[in-house]
Amino acid sequence: MKLCIHRGTHQIGGIAAEISTATTRILIDMGDELSLDSNFVSAPLNISGVTDANGHCDAVLFTHYHGDHTGQMLRIRPEIPLYAGALAKDIMLQSAEHGGHKDDALSARMQTIQTFSPGEPFLIGDIQITPFCIDHSAADSYLFLIEADGKRVLYTGDFRLHGVRGKTMDKILDRRIGKVDAIITEGTTVSRTDGKTVTEWELQARVRNYLQQYKYVFVLCATTNLDRIFALARAVPRGKYCICDEYQKTLVKVVSERWSSLSTFYEMPKLNTPGSSILQGFQERGGLMFVRVNRQFERIIRQFDPQQSILLYSMWDGYRTKPDSTIPEFLSLTGTWVELHTSGHASPDDLRHVIEKADPEIVIPMHTDAPQKMQTLCQNRRVILLKDREELLL
After folding, report:
1. Name one Pfam family in it (predicted).
2. Where would a tag sit more exposed on the chain, N or C end, judged by fewer CB atoms within 10 A?
3. Does the predicted model carry a pTM greater than 0.90?
């Protein structure tokens, strides 16, 4: 079995990794690069047999729907099969059809995605893939156990242990995976020196407190960070309003339809969209409103007493502090704003925990701008630092 990370060995985002045997070749993710520059255009991924006809590729698998993992989907030759989780496919389709601007070509390609089920292995050629649903800031995210040529390789994708479903990781590792020969792991946070990791449950508790202190609580968060929307919506007490726009409500409904049978957490919360009668009720009773940085929500927020309002900034701080950001002006609409966020990625301690449980012979970091720091987390492991497009025999 061979590994080739086409992009992502020394950067966060823009991911594409290849696993191959003598007869089968698969790609995992095909993403756009990340940048805080609003004029930035990601460099196109050019991969023989994937973006051109100079070779073959048997399938492309997507770990989750974030653009740094899926953004170059249309560069994949149309005859190559695509695979993703069923809920992730639904969310991708909603985003392509309704999320800001409609993209017919992308929607058509997404319609062809074949779906896999958590914990159920499937074969592509002589490679067996077992997908496991794990916690990340995107719903229906996956890690893959990849088995071929007598080797067992764990490809983590993006994950964390401090989300609402973080405890599932240990169960998967203990009961379904066990020891592996190699782990290919994200390392987004290894260069960060943040303090204690805040859990999603702690964020929910803080929102309950803010709802007691303020009549109007506005939350600015990513529309596709759906676990957070479910958690914060559930913090709203009976008698108060929870409001979001139609697109956000549609995405919540999609998740609920797929997952409410798995957990009561995903039962459809009572969400209202901001019509005149709903806003009148919100004016009288108060509650929580999910907002986005646009003129519609700017007009809405201005209708409410800023002294009784708080705006919770629930996104990565880099979006707020980039030079051309309009977020600071938006945050000033209320009398008070505070940060209420936690990362979608595993802390360094949790990265170490997962690696130790998987007990691999080798560790290959990716999705990180400081791969060399992985060695300090795994001092008793062999850490291999690859370059983009470098092949490794596993």
Report:
1. Lactamase_B_2
2. C
3. yes
